Amino acid sequence: MIAMTNFNGILSNGAGLYTCLNPRLSTFSLNLWIRRGAMHDAPEEAGLAHFLEHAVFRAISERMGGRLYADLYEHGLDFDATTSDAYVRFEMNGPTESFDLGLDILLRVLEPPALSVEGLQRERLRVQAEIRENDAENSYDQFARARVWRDTPLARTIEGTVNAANRVSFERLAQLHGRWRGRGGFFFSAAGNVPDPEALRARLAAIEPGAPCPAAVPALPEAFFRRDAAVHADAQRASHLCFCFDVDAASFPPAALALAQDYLLGDNGALYMALSEDTGLAYGIDGYLQYCGGVAGLSFDFGVEPARIEEGVAAVVAALNAAKSLPDAELLALRRGMLSLERQRMDDPAGMACDWGFENGILNCGWQDARERLDAFAAVEPEALRGLFRAVFTPDNATLCALGSPRRVRPEALRAILLKLG
């Protein structure tokens, strides 16, 4: 194991810092995490966090006299961001020799976004263009989100709406930014080769946060863990199936959940084999684990030929039921493969900084070094995985959203198949 100088904890100013460094690499990744995402937007301001993510880049560019992207390119730096339901994450990746410049630019995210009037209007147009292009309100994923997370902030789109973007003002952006930089409202993660870890720690500890403004976790839908194999249908030209399973995430170690997700949705995972390689029902399967406090939703979706909708649901149910009785040898092989992938991950600063920050800063895993993280994966026993599959894949946790021709989508027939989970 490579000797690393790491810090994983809370700095004197209340900001978290979680590092998993590798001095043998020639690149770094530094992430800034904001503990306020789309689910914390007020209903009438849905999409505000996503808008502020955009506006921050515009404000930094204006402060730098329009040289932001030229400087990034000249020094081999990649500066990006993403807004999720629970957080906004900014990341800076690049060669170690450009670390100081990358850090300087990243920390400008925490400066008040002093946009010009013209800059705000340009960003408004860009956000609205993104909303129209993604058409999130009419997507398969949004149809499922609106039903799985009904009457909660997670039922909304992350991007918001064109009309909501029209209402964004300087005042609202400034108010939200003040909450972003409140004490305990942000943290950092880093991986790869950071030239002076102690200097980084001192620089981040010197940031002066604002007043604490904790973000509340939204209440769960009333139907959570009481789905009774719910099926929601919608008439669409293309046929698509979206599955979601409620997960009591607090009852399982994060490493076990990661292994379960990899078994089902990883490259050549069980669902890919059952739906693509073995049957040709689908080409690819998209999926993710959506955390919300101590619970999560495990979702996956795929397109299917209209005449094979029920066959597709049956194939998923069969694969999930089979997972509940997998032999030890197969699960041990899965664990070995996951450990191999995680060791390779240590040579990928961008991926590691993201995983390390999410697991320590969001899930509170408390890893102190890479060995401890690998040991957590190695400690997951086959029976623990089978128990997880048995607990999660039940009719009480299952929601199916079926989109397609009303002649082909038969909700009662689909529910009868889903009830075979057991």
Structure overview:
Helices cover 42% and strands 18% of the residues. With 422 residues, it is of the alpha+beta class. It has 2 domains: 8-205, Cytochrome Bc1 Complex, Chain A, domain 1; 230-418, Metalloenzyme, LuxS/M16 peptidase-like (Cytochrome Bc1 Complex, Chain A, domain 1, 2-Layer Sandwich), CATH 3.30.830. The strands form 2 sheets. It has a 6-stranded mixed beta sheet, with helices on both faces. A 5-stranded mixed beta sheet has the order 7-11-8-10-9, sandwiched between helices. It is globular. The mean pLDDT is 95.
Ordered list of secondary-structure elements with their pairings:
Layout: E1 8-10, E2 16-21, E3 27-34, H1 48-63, H2 68-74, E4 78-83, E5 88-95, H3 99-107, H4 117-134, H5 140-148, H6 162-166, H7 170-180, E6 186-192, H8 197-205, E7 230-235, E8 240-247, H9 254-265, H10 270-277, E9 286-292, E10 295-303, H11 309-323, H12 328-345, H13 349-362, H14 370-378, H15 382-392, E11 398-404, H16 411-418
Parallel strand pairs: 2-6, 7-11
Antiparallel strand pairs: 1-2, 3-5, 3-6, 4-5, 8-10, 8-11, 9-10
Widest sheet: strand ordering? 1-2-6-3-5-4
Number of strands: 11
Please report which band the strand proportion falls in: under 5%, 5-15%, 15-25%, 25-35%, 35-45% or over 45%: 15-25%
Mean pLDDT across the residues is 95
The chain-level structural class is: alpha+beta
| Major β-sheet annotation | 6 strands, mixed
Quaternary organisation: single chain
**CATH class annotation of the largest domain:** Alpha Beta
Give the SSE string: EEEHHEEHHHHHEHEEHHEEHHHHHEH
Look at the structure and name the CATH superfamily of the largest domain: Metalloenzyme, LuxS/M16 peptidase-like
